[in-house]
Amino acid sequence: MKVQDLLSCSFSSWYGAFKSATVTSICIPLTSEFIKYLLSDGVVLPGEAPSSQKYDTDSEDEVDWSEADTDSTEIPSFPELEQAVSSAIKRLGGRVFPKLNWSSPKDAAWIATNNSPCCTCFADICLLLKSSDFVTHDLTQPFKACVDWNKETDTNNLFQYELILRKWVEIDPSTEFRCFVKDCVLVGISQRDYTHYYGHIQEQEASIVQDILSFFHERIKSRFASSSYVFDVYRKRKDVVKLLDFNPFGAHTDSLLFDWEELENLNVDDTSEFPIFR
Known about the structure:
CDC123; 5-stranded mixed β-sheet; 18% strand; alpha+beta; 3-stranded antiparallel β-sheet; 278 residues; 8 strands
């Protein structure tokens, strides 16, 4: 994976070209002050941003709440960002799924009693972002796996961190699929939730593959900046496929029911008509 491959997968790099094929979203630029806040110790929420979440009290020992209970703790405040976020949430129907340029804080959903990354206010978003290891990785070492990365490079000249708010959509995990593209050929498709068996996936395999293949040729191929990449979709119903995200083609991305050695060694000529489905 190279730096440009990762930059091509940054949300705002591709959203404009694929807006009609994916979930409605709003991108909000983040200041260096807010990024420092996300990386700071403790979980102190902005003072003027009440949260709608009820937190999982059984997990209190896993979070440093001590600073929030100290009278001398400085309460952070980001009024302009909070206003922009509140306005975006309203425009998106009142519930959103937050993420940064690449990663979402899905690993932090445990902190809410409903175990969901669905957010309805600024504080909900702050809590998830501050509690997520995925987000911390994005903020501290996004290019670590890039073979051409120079540690001396100033990342500020490459991109700007953004908060992405996506309209909340209830998605059945059995309808989500990860698609692997090598040299502009769709070589593999894997169900996203590989920890469960869904009988209807096997029963509908032919139509699922055909729907995703048609979507790829009609909406994705030749329009994405890289020749090798990974994209995620969900199949709402027969003949209706929606794009969720793009990821780099390489070990940085979870290969799910494949392994990367297998994918990297695939002969694209062998899968030019139909991808391997798992």
